[in-house]
Design a protein that fits this description.
- Residues 180-307 form the GGDEF domain.
- InterPro entries: Cyclic-di-GMP_PDE-like, EAL_dom, EAL_sf, GGDEF_dom, Nucleotide_cyclase, PAS, PAS-like_dom_sf, PAS_fold_3.
- The structure is a single chain.
- By secondary structure, the chain is of the alpha/beta class.
- The chain folds into three domains: 5-145, PAS domain (Beta-Lactamase); 151-305, Reverse transcriptase/Diguanylate cyclase domain (Alpha-Beta Plaits, 2-Layer Sandwich), CATH 3.30.70.270; 331-569, Alpha-Beta Barrel (TIM Barrel), CATH 3.20.20.450.
- The strands form four sheets. The protein has an eight-stranded mixed β-barrel with strand order 13-14-16-17-18-19-20-21. Strands 4-3-7-6-5 form a five-stranded antiparallel beta sheet. Strands 9-10-8-11-12 form a five-stranded mixed beta sheet, with helices on both faces.
- The longest helix is centred in the middle third of the chain and has 22 residues, at 307-328.
């Protein structure tokens, strides 16, 4: 058979029909193609160079299958610009003029001309599908090239964390970037592990690829990386308003996708860098912390890192670093608030409430440290201290001949997981000779949603031992009347939100009447918090609420101050 050649009219001939060929395109900018030899033209099903240029739009981007473009452009950039080597090896698909799909291996080299321009000199080869999908090296040369391909994430083709740091640090250091804005966005998919459990890892991988592609398309021109799992990070220089718009666009695209199994809500944290000398890693951490701060929020999908979050993190660090010292040096205090029998107006109990009085920062409100201690699973340290202090104070009252009423202590849901609550109560009651019926245990209603059965079992054990069990904060969040039927308890404590709402909405009083009546019928004593006016007190009398608590009777205060205040007001105690 006679071989046929393309005559280059310059330096020899090129055999016709080779399943591959050589082309050159500009590096950066529009990536315009400046040369393509005839075998490349024929590979795309075209008859001439002009025909080929029209098909691909005259640039390299137009040669690549749209679904592969964002992936291989990251790989090429990582291998040639942000690595020691200047060559790349990538695989992608092309679509011919006739609509056929072909599989391509691409061997490129980044070349720099004396005039300052740079070009990619590329040789592409048409391979069959099996070879295309084979990720193992089949030659020494390919193994060398593939070994250098550690700059990108294997699944999505996006930059990995290390090369993202390297690239962005170089971009920030460039003279032309000094006047540009710098923004970092951290994305993730809440409960992604649960998604994998429901839909399988294959579908999970597809979702991650779609997520990465969506971010890349919306933040076109930005630098996008997959750090790990479902965590993606973007660096861009767009105006702040545009960055927020892009974040919202990613949210919409992921939520409104046509595939119902891939409709997910995403969260994002945004950090606008002010100091260009700051480390990239720190900027990414700020964006991540902003994202983490809203993971439990269902009303917002992004958060901007600002002074509020920064102060919140400092507060968290202070609490974690100083809680042991605060307990050891008695900076943690127990305040008491009276509980009133509605029918008689007499004091029938106290609630023990924790406060932190720091010698330098003064009084720290509970919201300042309780949430942090729960988040870091340290709340049991404070709860143990409170139980001990309450028992000590009870013994002091008894020894001084003061009137004695039960004292309620708050026990966190986490206490049941970390320590033996039953033993904790029993030990201190035994040491300080406190009758068990004088200690009431308040457990917030949300804790009873525990599906392990641990809290239900332990609460039952504590109640059988002679302590009363109270359901605290009923109505503060998602409340269910089934809780009242499923658990054995002695007091139902209505959250203060009820009375606050009742001042504005008459329907709330009807609802409260119903809940109080139900509690009474179930044999549980209804107690209402937040009593601040005589009108509140009179209403509770009217609807049959048994106990009441609030500023109308007395604010939380140290025990000695509380006793003085109650004597001053002429209050009486139940026998």
């Amino acid at each position: 058979m006679r071989e046929e050649y393309y005559d280059t009219m310059m330096s020899g001939k090129i055999p016709k029909g080779l399943p591959g060929g050589f082309f050159v395109y500009e590096a950066g900018g529009d990536e315009n193609i400046v040369f393509a030899e005839p075998n490349v033209v024929r590979l795309f099903g075209c008859d001439s160079f002009d025909d080929f240029m029209e098909l691909v739009g005259g640039n390299f981007k137009g040669m690549v299958h749209p679904d592969d473009l964002y992936k291989i452009e990251n790989q090429i950039e990582a291998q040639t610009i942000y690595a020691e080597k200047r060559h790349d090896f990538v695989r992608y698909r092309i679509i011919t003029k006739q609509g056929d799909l072909r599989y391509i291996e691409d061997f490129g080299h980044l070349l720099h001309c004396g005039d300052g321009k740079s070009y990619y000199s590329v040789f592409i080869v048409d391979v069959d599908q099996n070879e295309y999908l084979n990720t193992t090296s089949n030659s020494y040369a390919e193994a060398e090239v593939l070994a250098s391909n550690r700059e990108t994430d294997e699944l999505t083709g996006l930059l990995n964390m290390a090369y993202f740091y390297n690239k962005v640090q170089l971009l920030l250091s460039a003279p032309e970037s000094r006047r540009q804005l710098a923004s970092f966005v951290h994305f993730d998919i809440p409960n992604f592990k649960l998604y994998n459990e429901r839909h399988g890892f294959k579908m999970g991988d597809e979702l991650l690829c779609d997520f990465g592609r969506t971010i890349s398309e919306v933040f076109y021109g930005g630098t996008v990386a997959r750090f790990s799992d479902d965590h993606f990070v973007v660096y861009c220089t767009a105006p702040k308003e545009e960055v927020i718009e892009c974040v919202e666009e990613v949210y919409r695209k992921m939520l409104l996708t046509d595939d119902v199994n891939k409709k997910v809500k995403i969260k994002a944290g945004i950090y606008f860098m002010e100091d260009r000398r700051a480390e990239v890693g720190l900027a990414c951490d700020h964006a991540r912390l902003a994202c983490n701060s809203i993971k439990s929020r269902h009303d917002i999908n992004y958060c901007v890192y600002d002074d509020i979050i920064r102060d919140g993190l400092r507060r968290q660090q202070f609490v974690v670093d100083h809680i042991d010292e605060a307990i050891a040096k008695d900076y943690i205090k127990v305040f008491y608030q009276p509980i009133i029998r509605v029918s008689t107006g007499k004091i029938c109990g106290y609630e023990a409430l924790v406060r932190w009085v720091d010698p330098e920062n003064g009084m720290l409100p509970p919201g300042y440290f309780i949430e942090t201690l729960e988040h870091f699973h340290l709340i049991h340290l404070v709860d143990e201290f409170v139980v001990k202090k309450v028992c000590q104070d009870y013994r002091k009252l008894a020894d001084e001949g003061e009137s004695l009423v039960p004292i309620s202590v708050n026990i966190s849901r986490l206490d049941f997981e970390i320590c033996n609550v039953y033993k904790l109560l029993s030990d201190f009651c035994e040491i300080y000779e406190v009758p068990r019926n004088m200690i009431d245990v308040e457990i917030t209603e949300s804790a009873f949603t525990d599906n392990t059965g641990l809290i239900k079992e332990e609460a039952g054990r504590i109640r059988e031992a002679g302590y009363e069990i109270w359901i605290d904060d009923f109505g503060s969040g998602y409340s269910s009347l089934t809780t009242l039927a499923d658990y054995q308890f002695d007091v139902l404590k209505l959250d203060m939100v009820f009375l606050r709402s009742a001042d504005k909405n008459p329907k709330t009083k009807t609802l409260m009447s119903y809940i109080i009546k139900t509690a009474n019928q179930l044999g549980a004593s209804p107690l209402c918090e937040g009593v601040e006016t005589k009108e509140h007190y009179d209403f509770l009398k009217e609807v049959g609420c048994e106990r009441a608590q609030g500023f109308y009777f007395g604010k939380p205060m140290p025990l000695n101050e509380l006793l003085d205040k109650m004597y001053e007001k002429g209050m009486q105690w139940e026998e």
